Amino acid sequence: MKLERLELEFDGPVARVWLNRPDVRNAFDGLMVTELRKTLFDLRAVDPVRVIVVGGRGASFCAGADLQWMKAMAGFTREENLREAQAMADLFFTVYESPKPVVARVHGAALGGGSGLVASCDIAVAALGTQFGFTEVRLGILPAVISPYVIGKVGESAARELFLTGERFEAVRAHEIGLIGAAVPEEDLDATVAGRVQELLNAGPRAIAEAKALIREVAFRRVEDVQRYTVEAIADVRISAEGQEGMRAFLEKRKPDWMP
Description:
Layout: E1 6-11, E2 14-19, H1 30-43, E3 51-56, H2 67-74, H3 78-96, E4 102-106, E5 109-111, H4 113-120, E6 123-127, E7 131-133, H5 147-165, E8 168-170, H6 171-177, E9 182-184, H7 189-201, H8 205-218, H9 223-238, H10 241-251
Parallel strand pairs: 2-3, 3-4, 4-6, 5-7, 6-9
Antiparallel strand pairs: 1-2, 7-8
């Protein structure tokens, strides 16, 4: 698939996916949504890739929906709106349920769907001064398809305030509420992202995939409803080749074979 809205780079075990519409601050349109979802889905099958980093070219990470796309959607029928909304929902779910960890490198602005993309990633690092916002209500619409991921990160209390006001907030607040994992000076952004990537590369790739599945299964459910699942999950991983290698490496005081 020829990419018109993205750039894809490979750096050893790291795939870097760049939103590449700097002239419109990497705003989403239908083609970008399609390309981003397919690229992230296809990377699941690229065995050498162990970590995915998503960033934005130019001045911003992602400014939300493209103005021309919004103008077109204003005249959509309900069925057309359902198709567009489903495409967006599929994109965020593809990020969320990827068996490979996804790290967001955020700068400039992450608004609307851009903030939703940040929330759907496993780890996010942002430059100080980055503008975030769930600005949909100011357009008379809703942050609907991003809501499961945002509420999962920031909780109901912060969502009530930020979804209802549509106000913008900066990286320090985003860190305080749990939307991002770190807010750093922009000159330290790449080094901080690299540090998080290295931590992920130190972990077993199957263990990471199983840990992500564990979180999805356990979150928001009663302990008694998931206890058997958790018992079976740890038993299965302990007897796997990766689990056996990890335990042997620990006991033998050496690095496991997946570490660079």
